[in-house]
Amino acid sequence: MTHSLPDASVHVRDLKKQYAVHEKEPGFMGSLRSFVSRKTKYVEAVRGVSFELAPGEVVGFLGPNGAGKTTTLKMLSGLLHPSDGMARIAGYEPRKRETAFLKQITLVMGQKQQLIWDLPALDSFLVNQAIYEIPDDQYRATMREFTEVLSLEGILKKQVRKLSLGERMKCELAAALLHRPRVLFLDEPTIGLDVNMQESVRAFIRDYNERYDATVILTSHYMADVTALAQRILVIDRGELVFDGDLARLAEQGKGGKTVKLKLREAVSAAHLAHYGHDVKVDGLSAELTVPRAEVSTRAARLLADLDVADLTVEDPPIEAVMAELFGGGEKAGEVKEVVSG
Ligand SMILES: Nc1ncnc2c1ncn2[C@@H]1O[C@H](COP(=O)(O)OP(=O)(O)OP(=O)(O)O)[C@@H](O)[C@H]1O
Questions:
Q1: Residue 313 burial (C-beta neighbours within 10 Å; 0-12, 13-18, 19+)
Q2: Quick check: CB of 19 below 6 Å from ligand 1?
Q3: Total-model pTM
Q4: Is ligand 1 within 6 A of the CB of residue 333?
Q5: Which of 26, 231, 290, 326 is least surrounded, with the fewest CB atoms within 10 Å of its CB?
Q6: Which one of 69, 77, 218, 240 would you pick to mutate in the ligand 1 pocket, going by the greatest count of ligand atoms within 8 A of its CB?
Q7: CA separation for the pair 58, 74 (Å, rounded)
C-alpha cells in the first residue's frame, strides 16, 4: 500500500519531568498545619531522556516499576507538559496538542478505558469518527479491516460493560486506531489478557504497523510482546535511559551467562554436568546448564569431547531473566528531593 503521509518520526531530547507533590500530615491538625507551612516534595520522574525513532520503527520501552515509562509516554502524547527538554512527534510539538497532531497519534493505556461503558462499542466508534473527522468511506474501510483482523464480528453491538476483558481491549484498540494514527504510544496494551488474546493483540499491532508504516512505542511487562514486536529496546531506570539497542545486545548486558542445551545419547547425572557449568537441569536425555559468557566455546568444546552429545545449542538467557538481573525485580521510585516552602 502506498501513502503520501507525513513523516512519523519521533525526536526526543533531554526530556525531563518533575512532579510536585504537596504533603499533608494526617488528621485535622495536619490539615491546619499545611495551611501555614506547606511541605512540597519533588519527584524526578524523568531525568533527561533522549532518543530518535525512524518512521515505522517499533521499540519496546522497558524498565522497572516507577521508572518513568508512563510519564514519558504522557509527555510524548501531550497529556503532560515536560519540565524541560524537547519532543517532536511527526513534526509537531506534543505540548501544544494541535488538532493536526492529535490526528497523527494515539495513546492506549491498558489500564484505562475510553469506551463508553453503557453503550455498544460501535457508538464510541461513531463518536471518534466525529471527533477525528474521519470521512465515511475511510471509516467503513477501517472498520472492515479491524473487524476482520481483530475478529470483532458479534461484539461491536454489545454493551461494553458486558464484554470480556479481552473483547473490550480489542474494541479499545480499534477505537484508538480508527483515525489511523501514524505514531502509537501503547502502555501495557495486553495487561491482564490471556495468552491467546495477547497473541491476537500482538498480531493486530504487527499488522497495523506494516499496513500504515506506523511508529510504535510499546511498554509491557510481558516480554513476549516485546520480543514478538520490537526490533529495538529502550530501557529506562529511575528516570534515565540506561540502554538503547537491539534485544540481543540487551541480553549481553546480563552477567548470568548463556544457556547450553544438550541432547545426549547416554544419560549423564546432574552432578557430573556441574563440572561444566551451573544451574544444571537434567530431564532424561535432555539437559541444560549455564556457562559464563566468555567461556562458552571452550566449555562447549569440552562437553562435545567428553560426552556422547547428539545436539548442542547455545542460547541467550530469556529477556525476563536479564531484566530481573539488571533491576533485581524490586520497585524503584523516582528520586525524591524534599523542600519546604512556606
Ligand atoms: N501524578 C504524579 N504525581 C507525583 N508523582 C508521580 C505522578 N505520576 C507518577 N509519579 C511518580 O513518578 C515516577 C515515575 O512513574 P511512572 O508512572 O512514569 O513509572 P512507570 O515506569 O510507568 O511505572 P509502572 O511500570 O509501575 O507503570 C514514580 O516514582 C511515580 O511514583
A1: exposed
A2: yes
A3: 0.82
A4: yes
A5: 26
A6: 69
A7: 18
pLDDT at 200 over 80: yes
Pocket of ligand 1 contains residue 291 by CB under 6 Å? no
Q: Report the nearest-CA residue for atom 6 of ligand 1.
A: 19
Give me the pLDDT at residue 112, please: 87
Q: How far is CA 58 from CA 8, 218, 219, 259, 295, in A?
A: 12, 8, 11, 28, 34
pLDDT at 214: 96
Assess contact for 71 and 49: CB atoms under 8 A: no
pLDDT at residue 272 tops 80? yes
Q: What is the pLDDT of residue 88?
A: 96
Instruction: Give domain limits for the chain.
Output: 57-82+94-251, 257-316
Which CATH fold would you assign to the domain 257-316? Alpha-Beta Plaits (3.30.70)
Q: Give the closest residue to 55 by CA, choosing from 217, 250, 242, 188.
A: 217
Strands (E), the chain: 10-23, 38-53, 58-62, 84-89, 105-109, 183-187, 215-219, 232-237, 240-246, 258-264, 278-283, 286-291, 309-315, 335-341
CA distance 45 to 326: 19
Using 50, 70 and 90 to split pLDDT, how confident is the model at 192?
confident
Tell whether ligand 1 has an atom less than 6 A from the beta carbon of residue 21.
Answer: yes
Q: Is 178 left (phi over 0), alpha (psi -120 to 50) or beta?
A: alpha
Rounded distance, CA 132 to CA 179, Å?
A: 6
Q: What number of residues does the chain have?
A: 342
Q: How far is the CA of 72 from the centre of ligand 1 (A)?
A: 10
- Asked whether the predicted pLDDT for residue 256 surpasses 80, the reply is no
pLDDT at 36 over 70: yes
Q: Is the CB of 66 under 6 A from ligand 1?
A: yes
Ligand 1 close to Cβ of residue 82 (< 6 A): no
Question: Strand, helix or coil at 170?
Answer: helix
Class of domain 57-82+94-251: alpha beta
